[in-house]
Amino acid sequence: MITMDVFEAVKKRHSTRAYEPTPVPDDMLRKILEAARLAPSAGNIQPWFFVVVKDREKRDSLAKSGRYARFLRESPVVIVGCGDEKASPKWHVVDVALAMQNMVLTATTEGLGTCWIGSFNEGRVKRLLKIPDNFRVVALLALGYPRDKVDLSGRLLHLVRRKKNLDKIAGLDEFGKSLQPF
């Protein structure tokens, strides 16, 4: 078992687009879903539902649902995060995103890789997985054991577009004011 604190998991997490065919153990998957269940939500409405897709044909179909989703066919698990827009019209997207980030960080602590997919055909996903009309598909999450693969496009992106420095994304007491001497 891998142990790390939350900040270590945040630093270690990266988008994984190549996976080993090894199945994710059910107890590990249950722990990841439990992390989602424990996420905060507006008014504690918990407007989420997560479809865990292990079926090969359904994963293949999900891989065809978006331009950047092709690698889902090799991910042993895809979690589809859905938000009930009737139960929480203003906050269902944020609440599902919070729950899915809990899943991402928990998966990282378990030695698993993830990749958040926001590019997909929602209608196609809803039809495939029989998702009710009052639910919106917020994101797809690939999940599995990372496979060593040279990801040239990913490496190039990180060379061209690095993480911004803290002073570029946070200000002390007002927008744009330096954090110094913070």
Describe this structure in words.
- It contains seven helices and four strands; from the N terminus they run H-H-E-H-E-H-E-H-E-H-H.
- The protein has helices spanning 6-12, 26-37, 56-63, 92-109, 122-129, 152-160, 166-169; strands at residues 48-53, 77-84, 113-117, 135-144.
- The protein has a four-stranded antiparallel sheet with strand order 1-2-4-3, sandwiched between helices.
- Helix 1 (6-12) crosses helix 4.
- The longest helix has 18 residues, at 92-109.
- The protein is globular.
- The model has no long low-confidence stretch (mean pLDDT 91).
Brief characterization of the structure:
This protein is an alpha+beta fold. It is 36% helix and 16% strand. Helix 1 packs across helix 4.
Radius of gyration: 18 Å
Amount of beta strand: 15-25%
Distance between the termini: 36 Å
Percent of residues in helices comes to: 25-40%
- Which strand order does the major sheet show? 1-2-4-3
Shape category = globular
SSE ordering: HHEHEHEHEHH
Total count of strands: 4
- Largest sheet properties: 4 strands, antiparallel
Low-confidence stretches: none
